[in-house]
Amino acid sequence: MADRKLPVVILTGPTATGKSSAALMLAEHVAIEVINGDSRLFYRGMDIGTAKPSVAERSAVHHHLIDTLEPHETMSLAKFQDQATTLISEVHARERLPVIVGGTQQYISAVVEGWKIPRVPPQPELRDQLQREAEAHGREALLARLERLDPVAATGVGLNTRRIIRALEVIAVTGRPISEQQGKGSVPFVPHLIALTMPRDLLYQRIDHRVHDMVESGLVDEVRTLLATGVSPDASAFGSIGYRQVVPHLEGTMTLDEMITRIQHDTHRLVRQQETWLRKSAAIPIDVLNPAWFGTLLAVLQAIPDMGRYARSKTSPENPD
Choosing a second label site near 136 at 20 to 30 A (CA), which of 14, 156, 216, 315? Predict the structure, then answer.
């Protein structure tokens, strides 16, 4: 049928489970293009702390939405949703399988669940004003204001200052509760979520080793270079784990060992958050410590309708990025 929805694979899972490597292996068997679903990989010059796929790897397998922003720029959820949805259509038109690879829950959910997102651009002055109010009176004061303006939204933001400010920002610009502008819609494809997993204690060990490897590979110098080129420590990109912890070390308020421990601790916490989301999702879990894990991954993909059209014999188009 001409209007039949085509598949999109979402290869997700907690950080350090090997999603990027799995996608490269998958490309040897299936004609794919990778759409980045990790919020940290958008930024140029942030390579070591994000475990970004190398230039050679990106040349071997077509990757999208990597190195598309400078560290002082931002990728809004709406912008990502629009770009990823367009890319999915373009990849399908090339008769290849779009594979979203990453563990940033909000970005992935926005695409595959068809989130309705208010198209309100950031309002820097208003955000700064609200941030100052939060610092002066506590975020609870902002939450109380949101409860008066939009009780529904207030119940969903928790004590996340950034989300509270965003809700107030949308209300100020549109004059309508943000909750009335949100929801979910249909998507023009069939999503198939697959989550790479491994026992948490062993994943923690892998993370701890990887942090040491990143530091030995020059993570501190990478952050020092970014700061020297004028990137502000307050830039949104520096909110990423592995970057925000280096800044106090460079400022002399944290030792190298303390910095490493903090990165490890914060990454462990991220893993717990990612696991919570995955338990609530429809993702098919695959334990990467099982010797047969990759065969299982291939079997899951082969069971997806219309996979026959993505035979590996198809030649790879030139990378348009």
Answer: 156
